[in-house]
Amino acid sequence: MGQTSIDSGGTYHLLGEVTNMGNTPASFVDAYAIFFDVTDKVFDVEHTYTTPSDLQPGQKAPFDLTISSPNSSLIRFVSLDVQSDDYSLLSSQSLLGQAVK
Fold it and tell me: Higher-confidence residue: 90 or 29?
């Protein structure tokens, strides 16, 4: 799915990359994430577009989902949905045991 980090300003980042695996262009590619804390409660919900937001078949694009919270170190699980006007993909990742920088 990607890498997580907390920058020097305390902002949590979920960095990822999307590939258009389809045979047609994907327009307005958007990454939605639900972040869960250590008690499995929803911590935050965020979304962002990839750069660029339109992808040709086989093209890759990065995204950076951010949360500005002093408690972002409590995030332990992320449910991620990447979709476009044309496609959708649902994925989840446990962050337990990963080093958050």
Answer: 29
Checking if the pLDDT of 62 tops 50, the result is yes
Kindly state the DSSP code that residue 99 receives in the 8-state scheme.
P
| 99: exposed, middle or buried (Cβ count in 10 Å: 0-12, 13-18, 19+) | exposed
What is the CATH number assigned to the segment(s) 2-94? 2.60.40.10
What's the number of CA atoms in the CB half-sphere (13 Å) around residue 76? 8
Domain definitions of the chain by residue range = 2-94
The candidate with the shortest Cα–Cα distance to 45, out of 58, 35, 60, 31, is 35
Nearest to 80 by CA among 22, 18, 24, 27: 18
- pTM, 2 dp: 0.79
Record the tokens describing residue 42, joined without a space. Answer: 């929803």
